[in-house]
UniProtKB/TrEMBL annotation:
GO terms for biological process: epithelial cell differentiation; intermediate filament organization. PROSITE patterns: IF_ROD_1 (PS00226), IF_ROD_2 (PS51842). It comes from the Eukaryota. Pfam families: Filament. It comes from Chrysochloris asiatica. Belongs to the intermediate filament family. The gene is LOC102837882. Gene3D superfamilies: 1.20.5.170, Single helix bin (1.20.5.500), Vasodilator-stimulated phosphoprotein (1.20.5.1160). Keywords: Coiled coil, Intermediate filament, Keratin. The keyword Coiled coil applies. This is Keratin, type I cuticular Ha1-like.
Length: 307
């Protein structure tokens, strides 16, 4: 009987001890649960908003970079087009200048030909004058001969009209000289007219070519100015693109650093939650074992009481 009382007292003491330990464990579990409240739903909204804003900025900068690249490509195409036009206009200008040089040489040749024709005309005039002088000399000589023959042969030919013969001879010579003079003048006039037409045509072609060259020079100058403007626009766009890429690259590095920091913090919080969850599970297991032992002791006590 004393043994049973001792065992009962021992069981009761152990039960009180287990209940006390159980109460302590429940207090620790409650305290642990209360400490977990701040970690239950951490506020990452500000980080998410920052990340979203930075992502929008990155997308905007990418779109801006794409737009600038397109503008640069368009400027390059326009510059190539103007360069092609410039080369074409330059080739046309060189061809026109070559034509003008050829026309100038032709004009010089025509001028020399005109001078030669004028010299020939002067020579013909001199020759015509010389023919007239010879004609007059021949007429005078013929008159002298006829006068002498008239004195010698006056009895042989009393009915010959010497004046009529002289007049006929003079008329024949004058008609011949007039025909030669008229032929020479007509030939000279025709040659002069053709030469004047050639000179006028060459002058018109020269003036037209000079006007075309002036227009080509203005076109080339305008194309050079526009080409330089396109080069300046291209350089400006490339500089802007470089500055934008550098600026957004720095911002992207900052964003990436912030994202890395947030991910590191999230990883640490996740590790803390896992560790605290493991500790909570350990405490729950200890509580379950204690409750099982208490129930065992209680059942033993009840069985002893029933005896």
């Amino acid at each position: 009987m004393q043994l049973l009382n001792d065992r009962l007292a021992s069981y009761l003491e152990k039960v009180r001890q287990l209940e006390q330990e159980n109460a302590e464990l429940e207090g620790r579990i409650r305290e642990f649960s209360q400490q977990q409240v701040p970690y239950a739903s951490p506020n990452y909204q500000s980080y998410f908003q920052t990340i979203e804003q930075l992502q929008k900025k990155i997308l905007s900068s990418k779109a801006e970079n794409t737009r600038m690249v397109l503008q640069i490509d368009n400027a390059k195409l326009a510059a190539d087009d103007f360069r092609t036009k410039y080369q074409t206009e330059l080739s046309m200008r060189q061809l026109v200048e070559a034509d003008i040089n050829s026309l100038r040489r032709m004009l010089d040749e025509l001028t020399l030909c005109k001078s030669d024709l004028e010299s020939q005309a002067e020579s013909l005039k001199e020759e015509l004058l010389h023919l007239k002088q010879n004609h007059e000399q021949e007429v005078n000589a013929l008159q002298s001969q006829l006068g002498e023959r008239l004195n010698v042969e006056v009895d042989a030919a009393p009915n010959v009209d010497l004046n009529r013969v002289l007049n006929e001879t003079r008329s024949q010579y004058e008609a011949l000289v007039e025909n030669n003079r008229r032929d020479v003048e007509e030939w000279f006039a025709k040659q002069t007219e053709e030469l004047n037409k050639q000179v006028a045509s060459s002058s018109e072609q020269l003036q037209s070519s000079q006007a075309e060259i002036m227009e080509l020079k203005r076109t080339v100058s305008s194309l050079e100015i526009e080409l330089q403007a396109q080069h300046n626009l291209k350089d400006s766009l490339e500089n802007t693109l470089t500055e934008t890429e550098a600026r957004y690259s720095s911002q992207l590095s900052q964003v990436q650093s912030m994202i890395t920091n947030v991910e590191s913090q999230l990883s640490e919080i996740r590790c803390d939650l896992e560790r605290q969850n493991q500790e909570y599970q350990v405490l729950l297991d200890v509580k379950a074992r204690l409750e099982s032992e208490i129930n065992t002791y209680r059942s033993l006590l009840e069985s002893e009481d029933s005896k």
